[in-house]
Each structure stands twice: as C-alpha cells, then as structure tokens.
Write a structure and sequence with these properties.
- It is a single chain.
- By secondary structure, the protein is an alpha/beta fold.
- It has 10 helices and 7 strands.
- Strand 6, helix 7 and strand 7 form a beta-alpha-beta unit.
- Helix 4 runs parallel beside helix 6 and helix 8 packs across helix 9.
Length: about 280
C-alpha cells in the first residue's frame, strides 16, 4: 500500500512539473534548433527581426556544430557530450554564445515551443541515412521536453549549380537532382507523425533561384548569401511558424534592396503553399 502511494505521488509530482514548464504558459515563442551552419543560416539572422516587426515575442536557440549530421547529434545525446556552441537570441534580440553545452542542458534551458531537427547538407537527400538516426534523436528529445513541445524538420537547400562541395557528388553534381532528393526526403519525414511542421527553406531558395536574381543565393556554393539569402530562409520560418503571410510583413534587412526583399518573401510564401515543388517567382 505504501509503495503504491509513493508511486502515485511520484507520478503526480512529475505531472505537476511537466505542467509547470508547458511552453503555452507564456506568450513567447521559443525555438531551438539541433543543427549546424545551415540552422545558423536559417534562424539566427532576421527571424527575430521579422517577429519583432509584428509584435511577436521570441527566443531562438541554436545548438551549433559545423557540418554536424544527425548521427553525431545521436552520439552526443547518448554520451551527454558538452560539445556544442549554444547560440541564443533573447527576447531583446541580443545574442549570446555559450561554449561546451550538451543537448540536454539546452533542452532544459527554456520551455521550448519548437525543437528543430535537420540532416547535414550532403546527406539531406538520403532518406535511408536520415532514418538511421532521426528516430533515435526524436525519442531522446521527446523524453526530455514537455508533451506540448512540438517538433519541426528543417528542409535544407540544394547547392549552387557550380558548387565545389565534395558532398555535391552524392547528387551527380546537379542542383535539381539534389533539390528533388531533399524535397522527397522531407515529404517522407512529414508522414512519420513526429513533426508538426516541415520548414521548406530548401524549396524557398529553389523558388528564389527562378527569379531575376538567378542562382546567387549562396555565398560559397552552399551556405546562404548573408543578406537576401538568409532573409529568404528566415521568411520561410516566419510564415510557417506564425501562419501569417510574410509578404505583409514590412521588415527588410538594411542591406537588402526592395526587390530582393520582395523576391525573398514571395519565394518563401510560395514554398509554404507548395513545400515539395518549385514555384516560379516572376520578379
């Protein structure tokens, strides 16, 4: 009898604890990416500004290891390895980086609304490789966050047509082959049942490449161009997370022209409408 009471009491305390850290207890949207430089390109720049421009309160975190694939995140999770740069943008928009942080430490730092998962770019169009690690990482994270925390999958982008990245060989050094493979993987991931949203940044970048700006959205053949390239990805995140037409958001970065901003927003909007297919941007 005493053991049963203690068990019930323990369960009760656990439920109360979970309830106390519900991400819906406040009006702040908190996003954490378990990622690499592609999550840096996607959420560390301009997403907070887009939100602030429409009165959104946001906290954004990125667990960063350059080039990290899902398999490395699984290893680090299982070993509780303190190997990440934890890059955090606070409510006020100020950025802070803490070194030597583990996944579990970052997960407990905030009552996150969204946790983002992504594959390393050379492997992002390889479904079998993704599935060797993604389910285990998802299970690990789910056990450590509120049941109300939702998961998203960050669809990355294909390389520039003349990229010298060695991983481009996985797709016969062909941009559309790489894009289609990435889109196909993200579509399959969307059907797993673990993810609230797919963030179609890869489709947004591919859409933007059909505009008058052409294939200019990376700075080195694979990482996004610092201004309008990153802004395109941020616009995609904004519209998907908040469900608001980003074309109606007046914010644009200082170094982005009016035309570039229109192209970025239109490309993102079309990607939300059709996340696995290229839509032409006639600007």
């Amino acid at each position: 009898m005493r053991k049963s009471f203690l068990l019930l009491f323990t369960v009760f305390i656990q439920l109360v604890t979970i309830a106390q850290v519900s991400p819906k207890d406040d009006d702040v949207i908190k996003i954490l990416a378990i990622g690499n430089s592609f999550s840096e390109d996607g959420i560390e720049n301009y997403l907070h500004d887009l939100g602030s421009n429409t009165g959104k309160k946001m906290v954004i975190g990125n667990l960063y290891i350059g080039g990290a694939p899902l398999s490395l995140h699984v290893t680090n999770a299982n070993e509780n390895a303190e190997k990440y740069q934890y890059r955090k943008t606070g409510l006020d928009g100020k950025k802070m980086t803490t070194k030597d942080v583990s996944i579990s430490q970052a997960l407990s730092d905030e009552n996150w609304d969204y946790i983002s998962f992504q594959q390393a770019s050379p492997l992002s169009g390889k479904y079998d490789v993704v599935m060797k690690s993604l389910p285990e990482l998802v299970s690990y994270v789910r056990a450590k966050v509120s049941p109300e925390t939702q998961f998203v999958y960050h669809q990355t982008w294909a390389y520039q047509h003349d990229s010298d990245h060695k991983g481009f060989a996985n797709y016969d050094r062909d941009q559309l082959t790489m894009y289609k493979a990435i889109a196909d993987v993200s579509k399959k991931v969307s059907k797993l049942g673990d993810f609230k949203y797919i963030i179609p940044a890869g489709t947004a970048i591919q859409n933007a490449r059909t505009s008058s700006m052409g294939d200019t959205f990376t700075r080195d053949g694979y990482h996004l161009q610092l201004d309008y390239g990153r802004f395109t990805a941020a616009c995609t995140w904004y519209e998907k997370i908040f469900g608001e037409d980003v074309r109606k958001n007046s914010y644009k970065p200082e170094k982005v022209t009016e035309l570039q901003a229109k192209i970025a927003k239109e490309a993102a909007h079309k990607a939300i409408k059709k996340p696995y297919k290229v839509s032409k941007v006639k600007l």
